[in-house]
Every structure is written in structure tokens, then in C-alpha cells.
Specification:
Blueprint: E1 17-23, E2 28-34, E3 39-45, H1 54-71, E4 77-80, H2 89-99
Parallel strand pairs: 1-4
Antiparallel strand pairs: 1-2, 2-3
Length: 104
């Protein structure tokens, strides 16, 4: 029900691409998507970037996404958390991405 209450869909614009995150029980998956061209600019997951517990993995993934996005020429994004609440792994991922240079 919480997902159905979103006020408007999250879309990327000309100057900001969409940073989408999906959380499973064990892993996180993040993609930078250009909705206008309908392409995925980059995608990473936490399977390759295991550090310790799930929150530490989320921080590491946020750092990796920010570095790869900067190398792809992306600095501004719109954060799409997929209807998940902003806490735990979702929050740790976002904070790490911001600390490493992504603007959202």
C-alpha cells in the first residue's frame, strides 16, 4: 500500500538521470538510468562488493556507484528508492553516494 501512495512517479530529466536502487534480502542492486533515451548508463550490485554486514555493503556500493557515475560523466541524479523507506541500507547507500560526489 505504501508504494501506491506515491504522489508522482520519479522520472529523470535532461540534466538529471535516475539512480534506482532495488533491495533484496541479501543484496542491493543499483542502476543509473536515462529515461529519455531509455538506456541504462551503468549498473552495479553488492554481490561483488562484500565488506561485512549489509549496511557496510550498502555504503561500499554507494561509493562504487558514485565513482563509476563520475567516470561516466554523471554528477546529478534523481534518487529512486523504489518505494522503500529511507532507513538502514537505503539510507547508508544514499549517504555514501553523496559523500563521494553524486548530487541528489
Amino acid at each position: 500500500m505504501r508504494k501506491a501512495r506515491k504522489k508522482r512517479p520519479i522520472k529523470s530529466s535532461k540534466d538529471r538521470l535516475r539512480l534506482s536502487i532495488y533491495k533484496s534480502n541479501t543484496n542491493l542492486y543499483a542502476q543509473v538510468i536515462d529515461d529519455e533515451k531509455m538506456i541504462t548508463v551503468l549498473g552495479v550490485n553488492s554481490k561483488k562488493h562484500k565488506k561485512g554486514n549489509k549496511v557496510e555493503d550498502a555504503r561500499e556500493l554507494g561509493k562504487v556507484v558514485a565513482e563509476k557515475a563520475k567516470s561516466a560523466g554523471v554528477s546529478k541524479v534523481v534518487y529512486d528508492r523504489g518505494g522503500k523507506t529511507y532507513k538502514g541500507r537505503i539510507k547508508a547507500f544514499a549517504e555514501a553516494a553523496r559523500e563521494n560526489g553524486l548530487i541528489f
